[in-house]
Amino acid sequence: MNYLLALLLPPISILLTGRPILAIFVFIIWVPAIIFSGGLTHPMFILLAWILIFQSRQDRRDARALRRDD
């Protein structure tokens, strides 16, 4: 679900991964970039959001694996 949200609203998706300061920073850059470039920079923000989503899921998997090993 978060990957789909990243396609439409990358700053919200980044916020849901638990990175509020980065989400605010991305939003401040994302809005003018969309307006002035006509949407050409949107894929860059989608890629950033997807990387952060993947990273947060990987962190959760690693934490679960560590708890199981204890």
List the helices and strands and how they pair.
Layout: H1 2-8, H2 10-16, H3 20-37, H4 42-69
Helix pairs in contact: 1-2, 1-4, 2-3, 2-4
Describe this structure in words.
The protein has 70 residues and is mostly helical. Helix content is 86%, strand content 0%. It is built from 4 helices and no strands. Helix 1 (2-8) packs antiparallel against helix 4, helix 2 (10-16) packs antiparallel against helix 3 and helix 2 (10-16) runs parallel beside helix 4. The mean pLDDT is 92.
> Looking at the structure, what is the overall shape?
elongated
Instruction: Name the average pLDDT.
Output: 92
Model regions low in confidence, pLDDT < 50 over at least 5 residues: none
Instruction: State the end-to-end distance.
Output: 31 Å
**Proportion of residues in β-strands:** under 5%
- Classify the helix fraction into a percent range: over 70%
What series of H and E elements makes up the topology? HHHH
Please name the defining characteristics of this protein.
70 residues; mainly alpha
Quick structural overview:
The chain has 70 residues and is an all-alpha fold. The chain contains four helices and no strands.
